[in-house]
Amino acid sequence: xxxxxxxxxxxxxxGDVSDGADDDQALDDGDGPFEIEDFDSVAVAxxxxxxxxxxxxxxNETAELAVEVSPEGVATTVWMVTPNxxxxxxxYAAPKxxxxxxxxxxxxxxxxxxxxxxxxxxxxxxxREVVGLVTKGPEPVAMRFxxxxxxxxxxxxxxxxxxxxxxxxxxxxxxALADTVxxxxxxxxxxxxxxxxxxxxxxxxxxxxxxxxxxxxYAQQQGQAQPQQHMPQQQQPAPQPQLPPHPAPQPVARxxxxxxxxxxxxxxxxx
Length: 271
Description:
Layout: E1 34-35, H1 42-46, E2 49-51, E3 55-58, E4 64-69, E5 75-82, E6 85-93, H2 100-114, E7 118-123, E8 128-134, E9 141-149, E10 153-161, H3 166-178, E11 181-182, H4 201-224, E12 254-255, H5 261-269
Parallel strand pairs: 1-11, 4-12
Antiparallel strand pairs: 2-3, 3-11, 4-5, 5-6, 6-10, 7-8, 8-9, 9-10
Helix pairs in contact: 2-5
């Protein structure tokens, strides 16, 4: 659980309605997402959270960060990768009156169906949630998308896992949303534009250190895996890392996959 909330608003965000659905998930703090103005200072808001620019997401002891970059090398998405799967929290500019998530729900469901996914709409903590199951491919993939409308912003959580871990990763994502802080700012931005994604210097340093550690560990594994017998006049090929069926917790940046459901979502929301 992240810390740092020091003020309490007298009203809820636009869209903080559960449509009467009972909340069967245990949340760390059911009052969020928050705004940066809810805190006495930015330093307080950063306590226990990763500062990603337009959004501050709570730290997770079981997770490692994985950064997606565009072909131009610009960071586009930060994933929290856990033993249950992966999730991310992204914020967008939205109308003052709210209601953007209702539009995105319809568009996202249609996009997933066009991708031959099985789609359902469920009532959740903050309203409607989009649930998808992609069965084409080597293994089925479960997805869940949750959105919250605020004043001039919309924050969206996305969780991806195997079907067996779908409930567990959804709980982790909801817990993160409940303690997320949005830094909207006063600068006018087009509706659906993703709020700036900026990695803090401390976070970049941690990612680099972790990447160097993984490189060292892999080099050591290569050295230990050298065969006792060498093939005559032929170099023994270096062992390749075993790829898990789901994204590994790699803190190094990786490029987005073209045509994925997540890329479709970024297109829908303008990110």
